[in-house]
Amino acid sequence: MAHQQIYPRGCTFTESDWDALYPFWYPIAFSHDVGDRPMTATLLDQRLVLWRTGAGISVANDICLHRGIPLSMGWVAGDHLVCKYHGFHYSADGQCVKIPANPEANIPKKLCLKTYPAQEAYSLVGTTLSSGSTYPLPGLPEWNDSDYQQILPEAVDLDAAAGRQMEGFLDVAHFAWVHTETFGDINNPVVPRYEVMPTEQGLRAKYSYSHMV
Predict the structure, then answer these.
(1) Which pLDDT value is given to residue 169?
(2) 14, part of any domain
């Protein structure tokens, strides 16, 4: 039987768009923001909780399975994420390991959070909503290359579709008209030819705009 995809409650994406987007990796937080308190993030309309333990950073749906309280309202105690409502303890892999009101309870294995892969790279925390994703975390070898400058800008809220946002990053022709106060030159709008190379993950282009002022 084919697996039935479960979409986030109140999902604003069409099913076809969500299906196309969810297998990829996305940055959901700055590494420095994930400290000794759980925090929440939303990816493709799925509300998530992030917490850091000795095992690293964990990511799960932001809901306690007992009474539906957001786990981001709780705290981290040792290597456990603790729910604020009844103190249920969850391990780094999402398993409920302690019920304070009934310490001798035989906790069923199904009392386990829906978790997702998490990786820290480039000062960001990334995740994918597909636990079986075949797409690797995108490589950025330039991050540790002394010939490049590391820049980690603040997050910006954009009220636009994901496809339109990606288009903005790929569209070099707008530099001369939009970025006139930084690196764009309105008097030099011509886009020189540059190569686009296919890779296992998609396409890679190397475009130089050093001619702009």
Answers:
(1) 82
(2) no
Residue closest to 76 by CA, chosen among 109, 41, 39, 108: 39
Q: Contact 97/90 with Cβ under 8 angstroms? A: yes
* pLDDT digit string, tens, across residues 151-178: 888 888 888 877 788 888 888 899 889 9
Whether 104 and 163 map to the same domain: the answer is: no
Q: Do 35 and 121 fall within a single domain?
A: yes
- Pair (98, 182) in one structural domain: no
HEC-encoded secondary structure of the chain = CCCCCCCCCCCCCCHHHHHHHCCCCEEEEEHHHCCCCCEEEEECCEEEEEEEECCEEEEEECCCCCCCCCHHHCEEECCEEECCCCCCEECCCCEEEECCCCCCCCCCCCCECCEECEEEECCEEEECCCCCCCCCCCCCHHHHCCCCCCCCCCCCCCCCCHHHHHHHHHCHHHHHHHCCCCCCCCCCCCCCCCCEEEECCEEEECCCCCCCC
Per the CB < 8 A criterion, the answer to whether 86 and 79 are in contact is: no
Tell whether pTM > 0.85.
no
Looking at residue 213, what is its pLDDT?
42
- Tell me the pLDDT tens digit for each residue of 58-110: 999 999 988 889 999 999 998 999 999 999 999 999 999 999 989 888 898 88
